[in-house]
TrEMBL record:
This is L-lactate permease. The chain crosses the membrane at residues 6-25, 32-49, 61-81, 102-122, 128-152, 196-223, 235-257, 263-282, 335-356, 376-394, 415-433, 453-475, 546-565. It is a multi-pass membrane protein. GO terms for molecular function: lactate transmembrane transporter activity; solute:proton symporter activity. InterPro entries: Lactate_perm. GO terms for cellular component: plasma membrane.
Amino acid sequence: MALTDIAVAITPLAIIAYLMVGRFWPATRAMPVAWLVAIVAGYAGWNMSPTWIGAATVNGFITAASILWIVFGAILLLYTLKRTGAFDAINQGFASISDDRRVQVVLLVFLMGSFIEGAAGFGTPAAIVGPLLVGLGFPPLAAVVVALTGNLMAITFGAVGTPLIIGMIDIFGDVEVISSAVAAQGMTVEGWVADIAVWAASFHVVVGAVLPFIGVAMMTRFFGEERSIKPALEVLPLTLFAWASFAVPYWATAYFLGPEFPGLMGAMVGLFVTVGALKAGFFHPDDEWDFGDQSSWPDHWVGEIQPGESADREAGVAADGGVVRTMSLWKAWTPYALVAALLVVTRVVDPVTAFLQSTLVLQWGSIFGTSLSGSLAVLYLPGAVFVAVHLLTIPIHGMSKAEVVGAWSETIEKVTPAVVALLFAVATVQIMLQSGTATGTDGMLIVLSDAMANLAGGVYPFFASLVGALGAFLAGSNTVSDILFGTFQYGVADQIGFPRTIILGAQAVGGAIGNLIAVHNVVAALAVVGLVGEEGRVIRYELIPLAYYATATGVLTLLFGYVLFPGTF
């Protein structure tokens, strides 16, 4: 492998890291530059034809359109609920459990976010939970940082098991070397991937024991007046209880039922048990913790959306044009309950799923005569659920025509800045992904992974989760990461004599880790709270939980494979 190939392959990633993390460039500026660099790398370094580069770019745009559809729906529902006063009622509802921001992070980010991730995936939790935290009074930047962190354990099984079902079962079944080796062990590919799911859940249960605490600690350290993790230590018993309430049903579901429902079941049981304990008077901190006065917040903490509801309300008319309503808690939560229910139904009920996946699907096959094709399943993507719930909310909350028009207008205004960033981010990824397909050689990502394996040798398993994280960082998807690197990780494990099942469990965990800093997810999360342009700053924060999770997973991978369970297939 030539060093020049490695240098060329890493250039687009290096440009993204330098411009966004080093120079604080917004993704709207950095991503078009990275796309141009990827074009040069593909054309000059990989001999990709202009046709293939164009096809990869178009395919990336189609994928970006899917993400934008989700973001649009999430923002539309956000502004709908802000205009109807639902956020006021929701604020009061959480205040009835606890006004403490630390407690709210545990409930909303770790538990509710995990439920949404288990049902929908696609970065949906941050798009829902982030705005909800802002509505409760969180600084928007703090809301994004903690919202991206908290649902990590559920991402591996996001969207009802899609990462493992599509990313591994479907792929491995078509690879003769893998399917034959699995059959020789007396297993089916489906049964083997179910084992991989258990190993992935096992990694998460051990490493994720401090995940709720990390979310709270990042909030108090970077956004509290005292800039310390000491306030987080005061709720350590609550974070551990919430983790245990989630982890037990989570692991048991992976073991007994397979990869579809660990995130959903863990979050549902965890919410019920943790809320019950709090209402019974357990685990409340002695002193209530809150952010400092908003006048002391740095400018970059708040963008176009102000925390909490506007206080400028007179004569029954809100400052944003909405009508002030007295709303019950159940009515305020009804739209989100409908979102959760519809997401589960559309992913679990097979006839419904099949109908939505085959109806109103925009397709472009053989793009520019290549083997690439793209599609946009308008009704199946979560964006359709958000829009449907928005339409249902109009009569449920009694919205006026002016309120509906206002919600749509503000949504279009807020989505627009994210369009450029997402289009060029995904196009850059697609050029890198397709560089090998276009030329019949190892693509840029495979070259980078091979270089890492050759460099690491027998300690490569320590880095297996980081390889998975690389795929998710680029593609913004655990599923795509498993597709990209699952077969590769199998091959490396086979070469070095390491248990394949364990290393693929680490791959599945790595795909979740990479979502912390995936540009798509960061841009989407910032867009829904009106902070597009702070991507580099958010990524810097997220490198902290990423470093912990990757290091701990790497150590466990070595321990499991070489010491505790070396005989595993």
